[in-house]
Specification:
Number of strands: 0
Distance between the termini: 61 Å
Largest sheet: none
CATH topology of the largest domain: Four Helix Bundle (Hemerythrin (Met), subunit A)
Number of domains: 2
Number of helices: 7
Order of helices and strands: HHHHHHH
CATH class of the largest domain: Mainly Alpha
Strand content: under 5%
CATH superfamily of the largest domain: NADH-ubiquinone/plastoquinone oxidoreductase chain 6, subunit NuoJ
CATH architecture of the largest domain: Up-down Bundle
Oligomer: single chain
Shape: globular
Structural class: mainly alpha
Helix content: over 70%
Length: 167
């Protein structure tokens, strides 16, 4: 039953990812992206990482998509249909299939590295996902976390300045 749900959500994820690129309207493309993000959250639940699934839904499917929709509406892209270039679709599809086959080959014929991390399933069950992520984020990865927060602050200030009308 677990395998059935995995393949079901994998098919929905691939289908929605295809329509992210194929949708004519940017808003429809963003809605297909939300569907893809939700499928990714389901994969996190299947990997027994419920905290990451909740963060995926709240941050990406919620906040980031609101930001993307805000930018789409700010730029007033509308539903302008651009001229379709069939040769680009043909070559893009061919390249995608080639990458799919190459990835499939390396996954099936590759050898695992054999490296084992310090966090085992017993560690996760005793501490919990959230505590382990918090400890790693605020001890080992504190500087990249703060740099990311500063970059997000600069992006917010830039969005406010760009959206401000002439005074």
């Amino acid at each position: 039953m677990f395998t059935f749900f995995f393949y079901l959500f994998a098919a929905v994820a691939v289908f929605s990812a295809f329509y992210v690129a194929k949708a004519r309207s940017p808003v429809n493309s963003a809605l297909w992206l939300v569907t893809n993000f939700i499928c990714l959250a389901v994969f996190y639940v299947m990997l027994e990482a419920p905290f990451m699934a909740a963060i995926q839904v709240m941050v990406y499917a919620g906040a980031i998509m609101v930001l993307i929709i805000f930018v789409i509406m700010l730029l007033n892209l509308g539903t302008a249909v651009k001229k379709r270039y069939t040769h680009a679709l043909f070559w893009g599809g061919g390249l995608s299939l080639l990458m799919l086959f190459i990835t499939n080959y390396f996954v099936r014929h590759g050898a695992p590295t054999g490296q084992i991390g310090t966090i085992t399933s017993q560690t996760i069950s005793s501490y919990g996902h959230t505590e382990l992520i918090g400890r790693a984020m605020f001890t080992d990865f504190l500087l990249p976390f703060e740099i990311a927060s500063i970059l997000l602050l600069v992006a917010i200030i830039g969005a406010v300045i760009l959206s401000k009308r002439e005074v």
